[in-house]
Hints:
The complex is a heterodimer. Chain A is 77% helix and 0% strand. By secondary structure, chain A is mostly helical. Chain A starts with a helix and ends in a 9-residue tail after the last helix. By secondary structure, chain B is α/β, with parallel strands linked by helices. In chain B, helix 1 crosses helix 7 and helix 8 packs parallel to helix 9. The relative contact order of chain B is 0.17. Classes of the chains: A mainly alpha, B alpha/beta. The interface between A and B is large, with 50 and 35 residues.
Amino acid sequence: MLESVLFAVSEVTETGAKPILPMIVLGTIMTVTYIAIAFDWVHKSVAALTGALVAVAAAMFFGVFKDEAGHSAYDRAVHDIIGHDIGVIGVIVGTSVLVEIAGRSGLFHFIAVKIVKRTEGDPARLLLFLMIATIMFVTFLTIAPGTLIMVSLTLVVTRELNLNPKPYIIAVAIGANSGALMTFASGICTLMLGTAGQLPYSHFFVVSTPMAWFSAWVAYEIIRRYYRAEFVSKISVEERRAKIALFDEWALVSDRRLFYRCAAILGATIIGFALSKRLGVGLDFIAFAGGTSALLLSGIYPDEAIKKVNWSMILFFIGLFVMIGSVQETGLLEWQATKMIELSGGNAIITMLVLALFVLFMSGVVDNIPVAATLIPIVRSMEQQGIPGEPLWWSLILAANLGGNSTPIGSVSSVIGLNALEKDRQIKVSWGEFIRVGGLVTLVQGAIVLLYLYAYAYFNLFPSRPN
Amino acid sequence: MMSWEPFENESNLFKDLGLFEAAAHPQSYVIKMPDLRRIGFVEDGSNQDRTVRACAQILETNCGVPKKKLAVTPSAAELLDACRREQCDLLIAPAPFGKNYDRDHACESLGTFIDELLMESELPLLLVRDTLNEAALELLMSGILVPLVVAEPSVFEALNWSFRLLHETRGSIEILAVADESILEEAKHWLDQEDERTFRADHVERALLRDIGGLVAACQRHSTAERTPIRVETRQGSFHTVVLSSLEMQPRLIVCGRKRSHSAPSFHRAMDLVLDSRRPVLVV
């Protein structure tokens, strides 16, 4: 039986087409892994690593990887794939060290309290300012650390002002996904896609930064209207003002020297990111320069900062990249790309819009990182088949980040926000309630994204990538 | 609901909540540097005398106040009287008793004289347990570590003294706040014993951060005027172990607050640090 299958496989290979059995087997492995990740059957990193091991073993069994000059099949299977994505991992490690040290200085906590004090305890203004602060923090810190700071602040401030924290937490969670669109390095998903698409840092200011603010404004308006009855405090205006004025931001500063140094290093790192192309270095170099400067100048025992890097996430990415790389070798993703182009009749704009719609939907159901990671080779394949790349990459970036707003598990910011709300205040947000708000936000944001992408493509506004 | 891992963990949430709660309810506190007119020191004929003299010399230079050698007296009370007469606001004394005993089996005392001093003295006491050369002492005195488990008045006093000692040299101060679950053991009956989570280190750290908010704000404000770098670190674990391991990484002078009562946990924490630290400890 096995011999006949292998014979069939090799026979098809000789005709030039890819054998179908490895596609089915590795495609199934990938699907099962994604389901395990989505439903939290096992730890995400363990799921991704297991998927990678099984996928590599299956690919080796089917002879998917071929020996090339100086490269064994195993090298092709694992080392080349990891090497190809090492830039993303480098940026994550470098920025994690920098963000950990900057977080210790109290810099962001200090700024957050300063911003909240400007609201003078006004519930509606608080919603607006919390969203703006969330976007700014996610811009510099990425989604998870930025959201965590803002969620904690929101829980404390709403308790002080006797306000229902639910709308504010949802606003922070949704606003964080808009924040991830601000720059190349604002979100892990954005970073992955930007790196894969070789999009220059400065192009983000032209395409995704305006959408970040626009989508956040849409979310703000919807949340403000949906929860309008909740923006009423049981305490008087004067009392609210007094309570907010009492906040002492200096209680949050653990190290003033570190505070100023981190501000300078973070600023230099952002400028470095923007100038990396001109400097002829990768973003990982800039991220490592920022992280290493922080380690050198912080006075913090380096091991303490290094061990705070989310190694679990790094392993998750390595597993994911190896698994997808193995699946890619079977030709399954290329086949999917061809089918998507056929579906759109080879029209670049329709392909872009179909892709955006698909990603908007999938990012709400599965974590947007596996969705993005899977679509990277598909979009590369589409580019090779003659579809212009820029609109596809930008549609992926916008849709993957905003699609996560539709469900409570669609993005890491929602997971953090809702977990924190439940743990600290014992308030649960049901799937139904979240989907009513988040789903509506995603519907409107999705429609705007499609129009926005269409307008950019129609008027040829997408900046061209340098050769 | 899916777990946070691998992206985040609860510990970070509790820490951030504690920080913002500290900002919301800061205790009003202002650093007041105490008067330091003279530094008194006493010798007992032990090997530690040379280190005591060196400490006095360094503090004299660093603080810009004269030192005064005091005669050995039969009782601690008489020595403290002599300090008052001589206008000494800080006393340096050797404390070698039981240094070579195994702590697990024997010594819980610094000797009758020093034990009495610790109980009676309103002045800060710089106790020299072990010998140390002048270069090492010089380095040690350029930085101060103020360990704490709760923000009690004795800690505020320790901070006041820390700023005073570094007033001229502008050395650095680190506040090491230790979230030590064991401090809750004695008060367990106050809390819901069924609720095991109450005693998790994360919860203790959150409460500690809330507790020290006013102290941190006061120190940061004062450090602006003084240009004394100050850093606040929180760690989870046993107070004793955390403090001593922190000193191993970076030797500094410990300035430890204590309430003058045998029943006060802060008294025993200070005593334990003096007993186990190989470097001088200033007990305030």
